[in-house]
Amino acid sequence: MKTTLTQNTQNAQHTPGPWSACSGDAGQKFNIECAGTGNDLLPVAILKGPDRRANARLIAAAPDLLAALEEITALAYKLSMEAPTLTPSVDRIIPHARAVIARAKGGAS
């Protein structure tokens, strides 16, 4: 089952998802593509090397992973405000998640 997340693309500096990974050159490379206008597919990246299949899957999932992390971070913050007993755990997680989101969007690393 595929879940599609609504992306917060307001500050996005990347090609909006969803992205897909497909094999090219008889499996010698993997293409990361996204939907263009109509039925067009636009290239995002071309991967070669021994880990190309696994890397392609991970990269193709990046827009959805970013959107999920943004939603989870917002929910964790909200829950910590409603249930103070969660605060110590959330205090450890949220800064890291926010740093990763910022890095993915071209902010500080």
Give a structural overview:
The protein is α+β, with helices and mostly antiparallel strands and 109 residues long. It has one domain (19-104). The protein has helices at 52-82, 87-104; strands at 19-24, 29-35, 41-47. A hairpin with a 4-residue loop joins strand 1 (19-24) and strand 2 (29-35). Helix 1 (52-82) packs across helix 2 (87-104).
Structure described in brief:
The chain is of the alpha+beta class.
Structural class: alpha+beta
- What is the typical, i.e. mean, pLDDT? 81
- Name the helix and strand elements from N-terminus to C-terminus, one letter apiece: EEEHH
Radius of gyration: 17 Å
Give the secondary structure arrangement, pairings included.
Blueprint: E1 19-24, E2 29-35, E3 41-47, H1 52-82, H2 87-104
Antiparallel strand pairs: 1-2, 2-3
List keywords for this structure.
3-stranded antiparallel sheet; 2 helices; alpha+beta
